[in-house]
Structures are given as structure tokens and as C-alpha cells.
Design brief:
It is built from four helices and 13 strands. The protein is α+β, with helices and mostly antiparallel strands.
Length: 180
């Protein structure tokens, strides 16, 4: 299966879910035009409260649609955009990418993966028990965060559903994703 975008979302206000739109515009070094999390420095309210001058490593949130079937098996009905992602993907194992992997989205947009989304209490406010469902453990007991990945915009462009995704591996050894 070819990796592709299945849906795109944005919200001009800070909240949990984002509304589906026909297309989003990625702005180099900023994020999704019109989205509350767009900016060079952190825009997530909890991070702004700690240090508003930190660079924004969470400009774009990507989430794999395959997670929704897994959540449904645990009794959770979740639809694209409801977990706050900007881009819902299909056919790419986002969680196994190396830190620094780049993705070309559509004709010209390019993002660099910075790390994992760390599930927070807002997930349970959206749907009780959902936070536990997006967390798992490896055979070694290591915590697995399944709530998607975060990225920064390297090259702007328009992204819409059905756009192809090209993976450009990072140079050097594989560096597992960590929460950002």
C-alpha cells in the first residue's frame, strides 16, 4: 500500500479535536496556517506556561488511521481529527520512524519528525479510558505511546486527502522517537 494522507484538520482555537477541512497549508518553520498551534515558539498552553520561548517542535501532529481500528477493538469509537491531529495518515508506521525522518506530503510540503505525542489527561476528558488505550507496553515493559507523532515544517505547501506521502529516512543510525 502506498502511504497517503486520508484527512486533514485544523482548529483556530485551543481545544482537543480539530475540524476536517478540504486542505491545509503548511507554513515553513511555523506549522498549519490558521491552526492554534502554528508558531515558531511553543503554542501548547501547558508548554507556554513553563517557557514561552522554547522552539515549537510540535507544529504538525500526524496520526495513523490504523490506530482507530485498534481503539474500536477496545470499545472506543474515534474518528479522524478527534484526537487533535492535523494530518491523518494511512499505510505508514509513524511510530517506528526514526527521529529526524522527513516526509514529503503532496506536491511540495515537507516535514521533519521531531518525536512522539505524549498522551495527556485531555484524552480521557474527550473519552474516558482512551488514554490507557493509546498506551501500551513492549515485551520488555517499555512504555509505548500510540497517539501519533509531531513534526516541524521544513518546506511549506498545500496538503489534502489522498496526497501521497514519501518517506525520506534520516541520515545515520535509527534514533527511536521520544516524547516532545
Amino acid at each position: 500500500m502506498t502511504a497517503r494522507v486520508t484527512a486533514v484538520h485544523l482548529s483556530p482555537v485551543h481545544g482537543f479535536s480539530k475540524g476536517r477541512v478540504h486542505a491545509i497549508t503548511l507554513l515553513e518553520g511555523l506549522g498549519v496556517e490558521g491552526d492554534a498551534h502554528c508558531g515558531r515558539t511553543v503554542q501548547h498552553r501547558s508548554r507556554v506556561a513553563r517557557n514561552p520561548t522554547q522552539p515549537n517542535l510540535r507544529q504538525v501532529h500526524l496520526l495513523h488511521i490504523e490506530l482507530f481500528a485498534e481503539l474500536a477493538a477496545h470499545g472506543h469509537t474515534v474518528h479522524p481529527g478527534e484526537m487533535g491531529e492535523n494530518i491523518t495518515t494511512e499505510g505508514i508506521d509513524l511510530l517506528e520512524l526514526s527521529t529526524g525522518t522527513e516526509l514529503t506530503l503532496g506536491a511540495s510540503a515537507r516535514v521533519r519528525i521531531t518525536g512522539l505525542r505524549n498522551p495527556c489527561v485531555q484524552i480521557d476528558r474527550f473519552q474516558p479510558g482512551l488514554k490507557a488505550a493509546v498506551l501500551g507496553r513492549t515485551a520488555d515493559g517499555e512504555l509505548v505511546r500510540k497517539a501519533g507523532v509531531m513534526a516541524v515544517v521544513l518546506h511549506g505547501g498545500v496538503v489534502s486527502a489522498q496526497d501521497r506521502i514519501q518517506v525520506i529516512p534520516s541520515a545515520g543510525p535509527h534514533v527511536p522517537l521520544r516524547p516532545v
